[in-house]
Q: What sequence folds into this?
């Protein structure tokens, strides 16, 4: 291109990135095979986005909105890099991911079998 700008041949997946870069943004690449990492393969759609899968229901809460009561669930989402939690409407999540509620129902039933005990410890 010129003395201070380079045009890179980017793959089609990166066609949304402008291919011309100033020389100050580029560095010489030296191959070091010990630094290579296997990147997990994530299926992407046309907009280069993907749908995360929920891993578990962590909590449940009823919120009042005027005269209505709406049940929310705290969902653990896991993508390739981080885990995050979001509050979602229970009906929406249950319709889309019914398998998450089978395990939480069992956990709720099992927790009813336990009795809370208070133990007093004297610190003398």
A:
């Amino acid at each position: 291109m010129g003395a201070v700008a380079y045009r890179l041949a980017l793959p089609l997946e990166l066609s949304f990135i402008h291919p011309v870069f100033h020389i100050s943004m580029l560095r010489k690449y030296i191959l070091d095979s010990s630094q290579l990492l296997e990147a997990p393969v994530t299926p992407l759609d046309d907009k280069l986005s993907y749908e995360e899968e929920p891993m578990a229901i962590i909590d449940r809460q009823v919120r009042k909105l005027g005269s209505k009561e709406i049940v929310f669930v705290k969902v653990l989402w896991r993508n390739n890099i981080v885990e995050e939690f979001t509050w979602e409407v229970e009906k929406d999540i249950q319709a889309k991911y019914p398998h998450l509620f089978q395990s939480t129902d069992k956990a709720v039933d099992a927790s009813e079998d336990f009795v809370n005990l208070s133990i007093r410890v004297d610190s003398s």
In short: Confidence is low (pLDDT under 50) at residues 104-119.
